[in-house]
Amino acid sequence: MLEFKQDDTAAVMILTLTELVTLSPVYYLFVFNHVTTKEVVAFVKATADEESLFPIRYNQFTIDASVIFDGKQPGEWHYKVYEQSSAVNTSPAAAGGVIEFGKLYLDRATDFDYDKYNTATTFKTYNG
């Protein structure tokens, strides 16, 4: 499960994409769908953007979540990663097969502040 904050400018994604790739060269199409609002966020990453020291074992990418998820609702998102031969952001139907899927939790940029009220509590009792 991935977890980002809305204001995170260097969100790290660690995935296992290489093991199911069939294209060469390959571009990764990331498609995120919000569970409740059904909003869709999609972007493409190239193998040149990868930061992993061992790409056969895992793939690591850094994204700017504050830009990609700007104005989007926090909460649970489902994601799918497709392989494609083009760097253009195409639709999932035009891309290759799904090579990974999972969940993302997008947290608020700032924590919610609770107000605490210090009022006196009084009780009325009746003895019948």
Overall pLDDT confidence: 89
Helix/strand order: EEEEEHEE
- Helix- and strand-based class? mainly beta
Low-confidence parts lasting 5 or more residues at pLDDT below 50? none
The beta-strand count equals 7
Largest sheet: 5 strands, mixed
Which term fits the overall shape? elongated
Major β-sheet strand ordering: 1-7-6-3-4
Structure description:
The termini are far apart. A hairpin with a 5-residue loop joins strand 3 (27-34) and strand 4. It is elongated, with a radius of gyration of 21 Å. The chain is mainly β and 128 residues long. It has one helix spanning 65-68, and strands spanning 2-5, 11-15, 27-34, 40-46, 59-63, 75-84, 98-107.
Write the layout of secondary structure elements.
Elements: E1 2-5, E2 11-15, E3 27-34, E4 40-46, E5 59-63, H1 65-68, E6 75-84, E7 98-107
Parallel strand pairs: 1-7
Antiparallel strand pairs: 2-5, 3-4, 3-6, 6-7
Describe the structure concisely for a colleague.
By secondary structure, the chain is mainly β. It has 1 helix and 7 strands, in the order βββββαββ.
Sum up the structure in keywords.
mainly beta; single chain; two-stranded antiparallel sheet; about 130 residues; elongated; 1 helix; about 5% helix; 7 strands
